[in-house]
Amino acid sequence: MKKKRLFVIALALGAIAAIAPGGVQAEPAFLGMQVQGMAPEISEALGKSDANGVLIRDVALGTPAARAGFLRGDLIVEMDGEDTDTFEQLVAVVRSLKAGQEVEAVVVRDGKKLELVMKTTPRPKSWSVSKKGFAIIPELGVTVAAITPEVRKKFGLRWGSTGVAVTEIDQKKVEALKRLVDLKLGDVIVRVNQVDIWRPKQFLNAYKEAQKEGRTSLFLMVEGSTQGVRNGFRFSLLPVE
């Protein structure tokens, strides 16, 4: 018997331009969740008689979707007063939303319908990186890069990863240091000294400022990677030489 493969389409619901009355482009709405369409195989597994609705694969922390209470695994059946039986219907609704708009939604969770209210926002700068860029800390032998689509694909970064990616490490320099540098290729530096970063220049400036002030470390929040596999978040102290 030939095995069936389940194919689904996934979408990160973020900023999709909407045109306001009068032809003026409105500020697009940002939601902060990744979704995929239903399939007959999924419906059968769930004991459903139809394949209506759109599944939430992931919800990014601190986004409108997270604040509204959307959870992984929820089935979106209505958004902004419109049925979302299909993936395409949900996309059409999202295209019409504007930043700052209050949106009502209905999801199915644990077999029950729940009503949620979400206030959209403009797309955060950390989610809008398109230009290539990199920065080198020569004292440490560490190179970081902006998370462009190309970098995201090369290092297998999550759809919701934001920050700067560690793209090169000079192992000889690292081994010559007296203090540990626990960064690895593919790691994402999310915050430096409790401040979000998304441009390599921000990382470099923070390092130079620490040097100028005579501090010995930078306090990092890092989304880890081991051979291309995401392995959670950790704190790290980066030596300042």
Describe the structure.
The chain has 241 residues and is α+β, with helices and mostly antiparallel strands. It has helices spanning 40-46, 64-68, 87-96, 149-154, 171-176, 200-212; strands spanning 10-13, 16-19, 25-29, 33-37, 54-59, 75-79, 82-83, 102-109, 112-119, 134-137, 142-146, 164-169, 188-192, 195-196, 217-226, 229-239. Strands 1, 4, 5, 6, 7, 8 and 9 form a seven-stranded antiparallel β-sheet that branches. Strands 10, 11, 12, 13, 14, 15 and 16 form a seven-stranded antiparallel β-sheet that branches. The protein has a two-stranded antiparallel ribbon with strand order 2-3. The longest helix is centred in the last third of the chain and has 13 residues, at 200-212. It is elongated. The relative contact order is 0.11.
List keywords for this structure.
alpha+beta; Pdz3 Domain; 7-stranded antiparallel β-sheet; 6 helices; elongated
Which helices and strands occur, and which strands form pairs?
Blueprint: E1 10-13, E2 16-19, E3 25-29, E4 33-37, H1 40-46, E5 54-59, H2 64-68, E6 75-79, E7 82-83, H3 87-96, E8 102-109, E9 112-119, E10 134-137, E11 142-146, H4 149-154, E12 164-169, H5 171-176, E13 188-192, E14 195-196, H6 200-212, E15 217-226, E16 229-239
Antiparallel strand pairs: 1-4, 2-3, 4-5, 5-6, 6-7, 6-8, 8-9, 10-11, 11-12, 12-13, 13-14, 13-15, 15-16
CATH architecture type of the largest domain: Roll
**Approximate helicity band:** 10-25%
Structural class: alpha+beta
Run of helices and strands: EEEEHEHEEHEEEEHEHEEHEE
What top-tier CATH class of the largest domain fits best? Mainly Beta
Instruction: Tell how many strands the DSSP assignment holds.
Output: 16
User: Which descriptor suits the 3D outline?
Assistant: elongated
- N-to-C terminal Cα separation, in Å? 63 Å
Number of helical segments with 4 or more residues:
6
Give the total of domains: 2
State the major sheet: 7 strands, antiparallel
Into which percentage range does the β-strand content fall? 35-45%
Provide the CATH topology of the largest domain.
Pdz3 Domain
Name given to the CATH homologous superfamily of the largest domain: PDZ domain
| Integer average pLDDT | 85
Indicate the radius of gyration in whole angstroms: 21 Å
Low-confidence stretches: 1-10, 15-25
